[in-house]
Design goal:
CATH architecture: 3-Layer(aba) Sandwich
Bound molecules: NADP nicotinamide-adenine-dinucleotide phosphate
Protein name: Epimerase
Helix content: 40-55%
CATH class: Alpha Beta
CATH superfamily: NAD(P)-binding Rossmann-like Domain
Strand order of the largest sheet: 3-2-1-4-5-6-10
Number of helices: 12
Radius of gyration: 19 Å
GO molecular function, one term: aldehyde dehydrogenase (NAD+) activity
Length: 302
């Protein structure tokens, strides 16, 4: 089928283009910059240049392409991930204005389905909860300190996608990705480099994070083109939630490095308050049973 990927040049975008291409889909990748066209072509996609902040331009682009499915991987975070709430400001704007332009464009063009990237932190930043959490309570937790507008924008983007099928022929699915790891993921590659220098610190605290390998993200997202139900959220996470400290300890052990020093979240918070909350104290042990059952997807144990 013909698929338009917005955010084609992002960290999950290029592996997704390769996955869709290998399945025989006709893939078009959106970028704002013709300089990135060659990256899209190298991953098996046909590049198209447009800016989703320009409502008329994106509507005309989607209409011209006529995709059956649109995949939105529109986030714009710092290269190695957000350290402070203010690092989300460009993403907040993108989720607010640009996200709705893309959904509107898909609806006007009669696209059958829109599949949108979200993230496990849409659940909120609670510090405790059940041993395993599923998608049945979409918003149990509060924002991080100072992050009300950011979390509202993320949840607003999700709601526009999820409700799309109620008033148009374009049904929407939201994929809540875990914290990425694997080759080509800049923050993971930074952890590996730091661990090799014996300097990768672990953030302590009682939090749990759900993780996902970038190749499993591509497979789950490709499956969501024609599996799953419109109006639904799916957790795209590993079988094994893990604290940040345990993740870093395992990584160091795999690299035959000494056990990393654990820093208390309060100390990490002096330099990186958002990261200290998200990866130190937030409770997100998520179930992937719904994605396994409905998207016909299983993450590879690693
Ligand atoms: N779950 C997770 O762990 C998770 C999730 C997201 C991001 N991250 C991390 O955060 C870092 C940054 O990744 P990112 O994906 O946020 O940013 P990114 O790599 O800069 O990708 C942003 C994508 O959105 C597109 N885009 C942005 N604004 C646009 C606009 N106005 N119109 C059209 N397209 C637009 C960009 O297209 P062009 O630049 O080609 O125009 C690009 O493809 C990476 O380290 C990543 O691993 C982690």
């Amino acid at each position: 089928m013909r698929v338009l990927v917005a955010g084609a040049t992002s960290v999950p975008g290029l592996p997704l283009l390769r996955e869709l291409n290998s399945r025989g889909h006709e893939v078009v990748g959106l970028t704002r910059s013709s300089a990135k066209a060659s990256d899209i072509e190298a991953a098996g996609g046909k590049p198209v240049v447009a800016d989703v902040f320009n409502a008329a331009e994106i509507a005309a682009t989607v209409q011209d392409i006529g995709p059956e499915v649109v995949v939105s991987l529109l986030t714009t975070l710092p290269k190695t991930g957000p350290l402070r709430v203010k690092d989300f400001e460009p993403a907040r704007k993108l989720w607010t204005a640009a996200g709705s332009n893309l959904v509107d464009a898909a609806q006007k063009a009669g696209v059958r389905r829109i599949v949108a990237e979200s993230v496990i932190f849409a659940y909120g930043y609670q510090s405790s909860g059940p041993a395993v959490m599923d998608e049945s309570d979409p918003y149990p937790g509060p924002p991080p300190k100072g992050g009300d507008a950011m979390l509202a924008a993320l949840r607003g983007m999700e709601q526009r996608v999820l409700s799309s099928g109620q008033h148009s022929a374009t049904e929407g699915i939201v994929l809540r990705y875990g914290a990425f790891y694997g080759p080509g993921v800049p923050h993971y590659e930074m952890f590996v480099r730091l661990a090799k220098w014996w300097a990768m610190p672990a953030i302590g605290g009682g939090g749990i994070v759900s993780w996902v390998h970038i190749d499993d993200v591509a497979k789950a997202t490709a499956n969501a083109l024609d599996h799953g139900r419109g109006g639904q959220i799916y957790n795209i996470v590993d079988d094994r939630p893990q604290s940040f400290a345990d993740f870093v300890r395992e990584l160091s052990a795999k690299l035959h490095r000494p056990r990393p020093i654990t820093l208390p979240p309060r100390l990490v918070g002096l330099l990186a308050p958002y990261a200290a909350t998200a990866f130190g104290t937030t409770w997100l042990p998520l179930s992937n049973a719904k994605a396994k059952g409905e998207l016909d997807w299983t993450p590879i144990p690693r």
